[in-house]
């Protein structure tokens, strides 16, 4: 007799497993290493014919020249490591016909790590770094067959569910994938470390795993390898109370809602999608199994952290889970937003130390009996002396100043028989300069004799005074002649 109920149970179980198999995440490899990509060059321009191309010495990856059949360059500086991948039957020609060729520099250096979260997409920005790289339940998608691939595989052995090319629909069989270990696309560090998940775990997904880790366990050195790459990028922590998230290498500025381990991950995911649907443009969220078996939803803002949107989203999510009778054990946020004050911390001691020194000197002078007025006047004199010294150093050339004064000393008139190149002795003594249109007196070179005569003439004049002055002038002239 045929047991219909047992067969139906097996059929339902099979449908569930198939649906969960197809629901796994796909992680796509991102780096573009093509010659024809403008962003791969320093100046943002693809090298032209007869250019000189320079690769950095630390270019430890492959560069693909897939779209050019025949490439002619005036010169090429190759790195100490790395590969230049030519198309099948392609040619690279070198010529020296240009005396001063245009130089193009490759912009990328180093290796491209499998364990670098920046090299993969397919997960939310709210996911921890460990879960942004391929996990054992994920499907890996590599570039198409006509694209260049260069990957440095992790140190420890990791597992993925399947691997395929982007132009193929079906993944490689495990034996086909293992044949890739001898190809130059993968730097293996001695062994091929990316393997397929074992058959008994082929249908294993996060929905069914009660205590599931992305790779290995939470003490795995694979997480440390990821964090060694990611920690230098953490930057400033822009929240007041950052969260500590499993598998995340930096302080986490966002929110978290945690539930018990008795709940289904799919149920929490559905409730989270419904509660946070109105925040799609502002936040991202990620539902995961924690290492103790519970379920948690991580929430992170798109862009700069403000804290307000995170607070609203976490509260809405908590209320939605409670309405669906899901027990919430914890709901927390990273607090208020923090401004980046690192520049002030660096410049503070440089600018603050002189001010503190000045304040101490001021207190010392006041302590020894000097008044504040004396101290300030002394400081002003010191500043003035320094300023005058600087001005004196800068003034290497002096200039005579000619002044048009209202007393009649400046005379400009036509004088017959004179020119700008001739001057009599009396004009030289009096400091009068001859010009083409007349003459004018330089007030900086007024003689003492002229000043004395003008002083006598301006005073009340008598014959005795005039005679006495003329005698003095004759005596002075006689003494000058004898000398």
How helical, in percent, are the residues?
25-40%
Give me the Rg, rounded: 44 Å
The pLDDT mean sits at 78
Low-confidence spans: pLDDT under 50, at least 5 residues? 1-23, 199-208, 418-423, 427-437
Query: How many H/I helical runs?
Result: 10
Strand fraction band?
A: 15-25%
Strand line-up of the largest beta sheet: 9-1-10-13
β-strand number:
21
Morphology call = flat
Structural class label: alpha/beta
Multimeric state:
single chain
Main sheet record:
4 strands, mixed
Give the N-terminus to C-terminus distance in angstroms. 156 Å
- Tally of discrete structural domains: 5
Q: Descriptors for this entry?
A:
483 residues; alpha/beta; Alpha-Beta Plaits; 4-stranded antiparallel beta sheet; 10 helices; disordered N terminus
Can you walk me through this structure?
With 483 residues, the protein is an alpha/beta fold. The protein folds into 5 domains: 22-26 and 125-231, no CATH class; 38-105, no CATH class; 245-333, BMC (bacterial microcompartment) domain (Alpha-Beta Plaits, 2-Layer Sandwich); 342-394; 449-478, no CATH class. 30% of the residues lie in helices and 17% in strands. The chain is built from 10 helices and 21 strands. The chain has helices at residues 4-22, 174-178, 221-230, 265-275, 308-323, 342-367, 372-394, 425-430, 448-458, 463-482; strands at 26-29, 52-54, 62-64, 70-73, 75-77, 83-85, 91-94, 103-105, 120-121, 139-142, 151-152, 158-160, 162-165, 186-187, 194-196, 255-259, 283-289, 295-301, 328-333, 432-435, 438-441. The strands form 8 sheets. Strands 9-1-10-13 form a 4-stranded mixed beta sheet, with no helix packed on it. Helix 4 (265-275) packs across helix 5. The radius of gyration is 44 Å and the shape is flat. The N and C termini lie far apart (156 Å). The model is unreliable at 1-23, 199-208, 418-423 and 427-437 (pLDDT under 50).
């Amino acid at each position: 007799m045929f047991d219909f109920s047992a067969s139906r149970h097996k059929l339902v179980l099979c449908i569930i497993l198939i649906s969960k198999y197809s629901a796994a995440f796909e992680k796509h490899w991102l780096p573009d290493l093509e010659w024809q990509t403008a962003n791969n060059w320093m100046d943002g321009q693809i090298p032209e014919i007869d250019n000189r191309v320079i690769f950095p010495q630390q270019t430890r990856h492959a560069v693909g020249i897939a779209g050019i059949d025949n490439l002619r360059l005036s010169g090429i500086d190759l790195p100490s490591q790395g590969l230049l991948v030519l198309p099948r039957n392609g040619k690279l020609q070198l010529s020296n016909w240009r005396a001063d060729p245009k130089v193009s520099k490759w912009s990328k250096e180093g290796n491209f790590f499998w364990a670098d979260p920046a090299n993969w997409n397919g997960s939310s920005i709210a996911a921890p770094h460990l879960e942004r790289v391929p996990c054992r339940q994920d499907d890996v998608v590599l570039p198409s067959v006509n694209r260049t691939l260069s990957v440095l595989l992790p140190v420890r052995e990791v597992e993925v569910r399947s691997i395929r090319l982007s132009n193929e629909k079906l993944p490689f069989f495990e034996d086909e994938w293992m044949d890739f270990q001898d190809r130059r696309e993968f730097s293996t560090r001695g062994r091929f470390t990316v393997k397929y998940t074992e058959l008994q775990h082929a249908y294993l997904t996060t929905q069914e795993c009660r205590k599931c880790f992305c790779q290995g366990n939470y003490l795995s050195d694979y997480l440390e390898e990821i964090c060694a790459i990611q920690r230098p990028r953490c930057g400033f922590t822009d929240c007041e109370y950052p969260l500590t998230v499993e598998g995340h290498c930096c302080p986490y500025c966002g929110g978290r809602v945690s539930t018990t381990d008795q709940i289904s991950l799919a149920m929490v995911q559905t409730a989270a999608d419904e509660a946070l649907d109105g925040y799609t443009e502002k936040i991202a969220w990620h539902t995961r199994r924690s290492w103790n078996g519970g379920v948690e939803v991580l929430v992170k803002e798109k862009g700069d952290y403000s804290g307000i949107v995170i607070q609203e989203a976490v509260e809405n999510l908590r209320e939605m889970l409670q309405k669906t009778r899901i027990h919430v054990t914890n709901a927390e946020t990273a607090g208020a937003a923090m401004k980046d004050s690192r520049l002030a911390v660096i410049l503070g001691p440089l600018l603050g130390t002189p001010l503190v020194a000045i304040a101490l000197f001021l207190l010392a002078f006041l302590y020894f009996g000097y008044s504040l007025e004396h101290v300030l006047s002394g400081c002003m004199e010191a500043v003035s002396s320094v300023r005058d010294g600087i001005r004196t150093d800068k003034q290497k050339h002096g200039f005579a100043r000619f002044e048009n004064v209202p007393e009649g000393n400046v005379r400009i008139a036509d004088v017959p028989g004179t020119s700008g190149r001739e001057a009599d002795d009396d004009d030289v003594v009096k400091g009068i300069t001859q010009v083409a249109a007349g003459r004018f007196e330089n007030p900086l070179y007024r003689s003492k004799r002229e000043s004395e005569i003008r002083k006598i003439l301006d005073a009340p004049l008598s014959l005795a005074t005039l005679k006495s002055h003329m005698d003095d002038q004759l005596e002075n002239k006689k003494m000058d002649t004898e000398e």
